[in-house]
Amino acid sequence: xxxxxxxxxxxxxxxxxxxxxxxxxxxxxxxxxxxxxxxxxxxxxxxxxxxxxxxxxxxxxxxxxxxxxxxxxxxxxxxxxxxxxxxxxxxxxxxxxxxxxxxxxxxxxxxxxxxxxxxxxxxxxxxxxxxxxxxxxxxxxxxxxxxxxxxxxxxxxxxxxxxxxxxxxxxxxxxxxxxxxxxxxxxxxxxxxxxxxxxxxxxxxxxxxxxxxxxxxxxxxxxxx
Length: 225
Ligand code: NI
Ligand code: MN
Prior knowledge:
Layout (H helix, E strand, L loop, with lengths): L2 E6 L2 E6 L2 E5 L20 E3 L5 H4 L2 H8 L2 E5 H8 L4 E5 L4 E4 L2 E7 L16 E7 L2 E5 L9 H7 L4 E5 L8 H11 L3 E5 L11 H10 L12 E3 L1
Parallel strand pairs: 3-4, 4-5, 5-6, 10-11, 11-12
Antiparallel strand pairs: 1-2, 1-13, 2-3, 7-8, 8-9, 9-10
């Protein structure tokens, strides 16, 4: 079974018998991160969008590990220009990698890199490893198609942004959990900065009241699923 480690903000390391991937590895400059980019041994780096708090150390980690960056086409090309090995994909497309299957979903957000380069549309990821599916929606607003995503791809763990201001806040994330109907939800994208100071325990309480199991995973903690 896959093991997820929360690295802080929207960054997760996911490891199974078939490999390791890191999603949105914002470590350098993240005041809450305890992991250094050089600590990670991964086969792939999945990037939902180009904002600095998601692209993060992705290019450096990919280069140091000779790992492939999996990202929407425009962002993948941007990373290739920085010397990373890339596998471009786009929304609605899936691909079977040695470490697992990745499918890109819509996300309602932006995707400009820190240097101002616009990198197309952001995405979410459905990542299936060892027969278990993780849904990482990236940064997004609530959207009703989450219901369709959950119907077509039974989700074991959905990590959901709850920080508000840039993404869903708690009200919308609770609704997202209902629409997705996953086996378990894990809150993310909160408290990294003052502006996203949402309470994960409030989210946990409200989502549990609606019959969705929740686990607040602390930074550096793991979750087997
Ligand atoms: Ni963003
Ligand atoms: Mn963000």
